[in-house]
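Quick review question:
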């Protein structure tokens, strides 16, 4: 796996957040390179009492550059430092792609940067 050259990069915007007793869910949308327009929902569950780290899972739909629709499921872990989240997860895409994704989330500005690395 090449962790130097991502196969896609992009920026997403948090469009809504739902805060609950067991964690927080985010809805996101934006452009991510060859995957085109991405719509995703992710749920973060805290793994410690300070809510500084935990697990995540989610689903995504993308309208790719060629107009095709692709779906993906993903799961991984996260950690928080003040208003910033670092996310690390793997996804499994309906077109056969499998990726390792590293994301940085700015909670104050409701923005997320994404770097996607192929595991194939």
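Suggested answer, residue by residue:
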């Amino acid at each position: 796996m090449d962790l130097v050259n991502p196969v896609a990069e992009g920026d997403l915007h948090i469009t809504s957040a739902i805060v609950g007793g067991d964690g927080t869910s985010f809805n996101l949308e934006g452009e991510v390179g060859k995957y085109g327009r991405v719509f995703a929902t992710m749920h973060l569950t805290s793994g410690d009492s300070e809510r500084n780290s935990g697990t995540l899972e989610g689903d995504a739909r993308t309208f790719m550059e060629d107009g095709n629709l692709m779906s993906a499921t993903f799961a991984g872990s996260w950690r928080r430092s003040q208003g910033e989240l670092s996310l690390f997860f793997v996804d499994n895409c309906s077109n056969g792609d499998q990726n390792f994704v590293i994301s940085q989330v700015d909670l104050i500005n409701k923005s997320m940067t994404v770097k996607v690395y192929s595991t194939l």
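Why it works: The chain has no helices and eight strands. The first strand starts at residue 8 and ends at 20.
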